[in-house]
Amino acid sequence: MEELLMTTIKDIAKASGVSVTTVSRALNGYSDVNEKTRRKIIEVAEVLNYSPNSLARGLVMKKSKTIGLLVSGFNKESIKDNFTFEVLTGINQFAAETDYDLVLFNTNSSKQREKTYAQLCKERRVDGAIIQGIKTDDPYLKEVVDSDIPCVLVDIPIKTENVGYVTTDNVLGAEKAVSYLLELGHRHVAMINGHEFAFVSEERLQGYKNVLKSATIKFRKEWVVNGLFQESAAEEQARILLESFPEITAIFCASDLMALGCIKAAQKLGRTVPEQLSVIGYDDILLASYVTPSLSTIAQNKALLGYSAAKLLIQMLEGEAKPQSIIIETELIERESAIRLSN
Amino acid sequence: MEELLMTTIKDIAKASGVSVTTVSRALNGYSDVNEKTRRKIIEVAEVLNYSPNSLARGLVMKKSKTIGLLVSGFNKESIKDNFTFEVLTGINQFAAETDYDLVLFNTNSSKQREKTYAQLCKERRVDGAIIQGIKTDDPYLKEVVDSDIPCVLVDIPIKTENVGYVTTDNVLGAEKAVSYLLELGHRHVAMINGHEFAFVSEERLQGYKNVLKSATIKFRKEWVVNGLFQESAAEEQARILLESFPEITAIFCASDLMALGCIKAAQKLGRTVPEQLSVIGYDDILLASYVTPSLSTIAQNKALLGYSAAKLLIQMLEGEAKPQSIIIETELIERESAIRLSN
DNA sequence: TTGAAAGCGCTAACAA
DNA sequence: TTGTTAGCGCTTTCAA
Lengths: 343, 343
Description:
Chains A, B: Keywords: DNA-binding, Transcription, Transcription regulation. The first copy, chain A, has 343 residues and is of the alpha/beta class. Chain A is 41% helix and 16% strand.
């Protein structure tokens, strides 16, 4: 509206009888300015209700003090497992301790998202970016590696000159889950995985295989299906799995949402959970503790994931850290959906 | 990093043998530039991998094409009712259809949040702001009304020269809920409200009163307690309420989260829901359909709330609309937590 | 149809 | 300790 009213350092300079340079220095806390002058300037600035123009500052300093957020998960589906939101919470929490603000980019492309990752970031002149929830075949991903924009990836293990990442140990997490099922006496353990374009899926599958191997249980690839991280797709896959191989007594799901779908499928087939089928999930989403039966699962600290990502990125930006990989611990949560195999 | 590599219109001008003015006009689609020249310029721009500098543009144009988001709900508690997130989803959805980006401000003040609302916005030069989840006694709120920054409020009915709002009809929503309970035969209906610094609480209370009145049921103020929109506080309040007035057969809760707490309290007191106590919530959060018993509730279209807020704001910014109030419909969702009173 | 010049608000040499 | 000057990358009169 009244742009005319916006005070600038020029106004302050005039009002306090000094040059703009001095105002700039005074306001930015430089030491080479007379204390009296500084006090005067600060007072005038307050009277005139001055706010620095970050655009102008950014233009000359070549840094905007903003971080770009590229998240694919701002949509209906991701409301259920609010993974995206929880990570965001963590990012925001750390950012709040700094003078960086967050810029949300609109990647959920309405049709012709013609702008590339780099363009998005370069145009807004973000100092760095956090990327989350994109598939390994996403064109954006290649760009990240090539571009020279400092960046932290969530759950995508790529490390370069200016790209770091934060993730959990998915192999170990899956091992915990499957070991647990074996400890409960299960031998016929299937897996509902996500999809082939997710690193976490690769790793969780590896964990599954590892445990089977060390228990000398034969790996059967037809016992591993992809549920696309969706409740409905997982339900369908679980149905097929359970119909084809009724001898399965336990299923490891690569996400809680898919575990929910899996349980639905079992129930529709007349198999009660956990009595006639043990199910363990992954993530520990909010729903996990509220559904009946409550979900045993591998918990990820999602907020910490976000917090660490923001922290790493900002440290990189401030030259306090090199890009690195941060691995967050997971934890087995025992609830009701998996129990000892009855014989 | 390699800031030196950033192409500017100056580079393009040099490479294509024209002035920066012409480049600017060509790239911005002005008509007064020769088609041949334009093609040349665009080609060069692509070759040089040009991205416009939004900081520079914003500085001269006095608009940043960004929208500030002031949300108080980026924290652990708000993960349960992910109201905040769903609204954000809607905002993002509309923004994605435009060329505006979203800037998340860190209002969840770590101690000394010394910056005011206006400062936040002015510093970043956001063109407008969407404010959500702040209490009516929040100092930010007064500022909004005073400041000349275009702004849309979510669930706070204030309209001024440059402030509009989006909300649901909370009076009507509450009326639907309480009417429903009465239709089910209940006469002893209590209410668990939020807190006194929420407009929605005032309005829902009004709706509650309205229905009682038209049913000639006496309003008892000791039957209305505040649960602060929190599950635990509501549980405590519900316990006190039910212990003091065992004749209560139904409770209207001003949020689903509080309904959850309320149900817990009832169950701990040995009253089963819905058989011995009917409970109806408000919001229709994700959990509502997953818990047992599932929650009957008044559904708000949260994504639409956000979508409409973003739409209104951007229309205001583009001069296509004046600030106005938008009211979104609510809907009664019948599930399991409220049933006909048995006699 | 094009270009020269000015200026958005700020910071940063360099001089004084 | 302070001021002068230049310039960040862009848009926009105004003149040609």
